[in-house]
Amino acid sequence: MIPSFRIYGLVLLLSVFYRIPNSHSQTIPLAADKGPKIEWLTFEEAYQRIKKKPKMVFVDVYTEWCGWCKKMDSQTFSNPEIADYMNKTFYCVKLDAERKDTVVLDSVVFVNPNPENKRSSHRLAVELLRGKMSYPSYVFLNKKGEMITVVPGFHPPKEFEPMLHFFGDGAWEKMKWEEFSEGFKGKVQ
Q: Which residues contact 115 (CB under 8 A, 6 or more apart)?
């Protein structure tokens, strides 16, 4: 049996350690913690939402092993201007191109044919990327869930902002990218 003064001393000692910040504690918020964050949905959630309230869909097709995907998350998707615009304009989806489970959208079934194998692509990702399996890639869908385009690769915030507006504001229906990007005045610094 442990004497009660030892328990009291242990509790006191632990409470002191938890109150004193160490050199590893984060007292200053990270840049990614400031401002709005993107509300990421599953593909199934976005599919259900678009049926109830039509809105454009942005799909980030990524893999767990993709370094450029992680850089996109930490540098571009964490930017407050990017996050704010994406939340207002799109249902935003994170789709792991190698997810293991089955996806059923109405009566259409998408599977990963080899879920136990590394780097086996899920059929939903293959369909969305039209077989061009490059990560990261971004799929833009209109309010009816129809494909507009696929854009591959890492893009820093200042480069990504006009692209989001080009599709999100519907400019792609009226003008060429070159014309739009020349006159675009963004908020990202």
A: 100, 101
